[in-house]
Design brief:
2 domains; four-stranded parallel beta sheet; 12 helices; Rossmann fold; alpha/beta
Length: 319
C-alpha cells in the first residue's frame, strides 16, 4: 500500500527528522513510502517519487525541509485537486502524512471528502497556533534561535545605556514572543493576546532609570505590528537610545533541537499507526505529555490559546 509525505506551508525545524522517521517506519510497517516535493504545488505537478533509506540518510541534523514546502492557491481550485488526485492514483498512493499548519490541513480535509485519500496531519509551525495541541513541531528550535539572539543582544545592551527591541514571528499568535520574554528576562513584551499601556510603561521605566537601570530589552510579536514605533517611543518618550532587531526568517532555520527530533519521531509514528488502523482525517495532537489524534473538523473549528499562567506573567511586561 502506498503512503506519501509532504511538508506544507511555512517550513520549520523538525520536518527533516519527521521525513526520516516516515520513510523508516513505513518500510517497517510493510508500506511503500513516497516523497512529495514542494508541498501541495508538487502534488499538483506530480513531483512525487518513491523513497528509500538512502533518500533520508543524514537529514536528521538539517533545518528546514529537504522536500521543500509551498503555500498553494491552486489547490483551492477543483481542477487542480483533480490533477493531484490523478497523480496519487497513478502512483498507487492511498494515504498521506502532511506536516504543516491548519491551512494545509483544511485543504487536505476538502481533498479527503472529495476523493477519499486518507490523511493524517502533523502540526508543524513555529507559531504554535494550532488548536488542540500544546506543541507544534519546530517551536523549540525557533525558541532557541530567539533565546540565543536575545542573550547576545543582552551582552551588547549591558555594555551600553540603550534599549533593544526584538521583533519575533508568530503571525497572530504571541506564543513565541511571550515564552521568549519569560525565558530571557525581557522587561517589555507586547503580544496580540494582551493589551498594553504605554503611559504606565513610561512611568515604570523613568523610575527604574532614575534608580539605576542602564539598559532594557523589549520583545514584540509581529502580530502587534508595533516594533519600529516602540523603538521610537523608547527614544522619544522614555529618553533611552534604542535599536531594533527584526529576527525574521532566522527563526525558521537551524538544526532541530533534541526536543524537535524526538517529537518528530513520536508525531510521525502516531500518524502512521492512525492511518493503518483506519483513521482518515486525523490530526495528531500533544496534550498533557500524551499524543493522540483528533478529527480535522475539531482542529479547524477551535482557536489556540496560550497558557493562562504564561499570560498572567506576561501581563506584567505590558504595563
Ligand atoms: O507561519 C510561520 C511564519 O513563519 C509566520 O510566523 C510568519 O508570519 C510567516 O510564516 C512568514 O511567511 P513567509 O515565509 O511566507 O513570509
Amino acid at each position: 500500500m502506498g503512503i506519501a509525505i509532504m511538508t506544507s506551508g511555512g517550513d520549520c525545524a523538525g520536518m527533516n527528522p519527521g521525513i526520516k522517521r516516515f520513510v523508516e517506519y513505513s518500510i517497517e510497517k510493510g508500506l511503500k513510502p513516497y516523497l512529495i516535493c514542494d508541498g501541495l504545488e508538487g502534488l499538483i505537478d506530480n513531483r512525487i517519487q518513491p523513497a528509500t533509506h538512502a533518500d533520508v540518510a543524514g537529514i536528521i541534523t538539517k533545518g528546514g525541509s529537504v522536500l521543500r514546502s509551498s503555500r498553494s492557491a491552486r489547490f483551492f481550485e477543483p481542477e487542480y485537486r483533480q490533477q493531484a488526485y490523478d497523480n496519487l492514483k497513478a502512483h498507487g498512493i492511498d494515504m498521506l502524512v502532511v506536516l504543516g499548519g491548519d491551512g494545509s490541513f483544511r485543504a487536505l480535509d476538502v481533498f479527503y471528502r472529495e476523493f477519499g485519500i486518507a490523511f493524517c496531519g502533523i502540526p508543524a509551525t513555529i507559531d504554535n497556533d494550532i488548536f488542540g495541541t500544546d506543541y507544534c513541531l519546530g517551536v523549540d528550535t525557533a525558541l532557541n534561535v530567539i533565546r540565543q539572539a536575545t542573550d547576545q543582544i543582552r551582552d551588547t545592551a549591558s555594555s551600553s545605556r540603550r534599549a533593544f527591541v526584538i521583533e519575533t514571528m508568530g503571525r497572530d499568535c504571541g506564543y513565541l514572543a511571550l515564552v521568549s520574554a519569560l525565558t530571557s528576562g525581557a522587561e517589555i513584551c507586547l503580544i496580540p493576546e494582551l493589551p498594553y499601556d504605554l503611559d504606565s510603561l513610561k512611568k515604570r521605566f523613568q523610575a527604574e532609570i532614575a534608580d539605576g537601570r542602564t539598559y532594557m530589552i523589549a520583545i514584540v510579536s509581529e502580530g502587534v505590528d508595533f516594533a519600529p514605533q516602540l523603538t521610537r517611543w523608547l527614544e522619544e518618550e522614555v529618553g533611552m537610545e534604542a535599536r531594533l532587531t527584526v529576527l525574521g526568517h532566522t527563526q525558521r532555520g537551524g538544526s532541530p533541537t533534541v526536543l524537535d527530533r524526538l517529537r518528530a519521531f513520536e508525531f510521525v509514528t502516531i500518524a502512521i499507526d492512525a492511518l493503518v488502523t483506519g483513521s482518515n482525517d486525523g490530526v495528531v495532537f500533544y496534550k498533557n505529555c500524551q499524543m493522540a489524534t483528533r478529527s480535522i473538523s475539531e482542529v479547524v473549528s477551535g482557536r489556540s490559546e496560550i497558557s493562562p499562567v504564561y499570560l498572567e506573567e506576561g501581563r506584567k511586561l505590558t504595563r
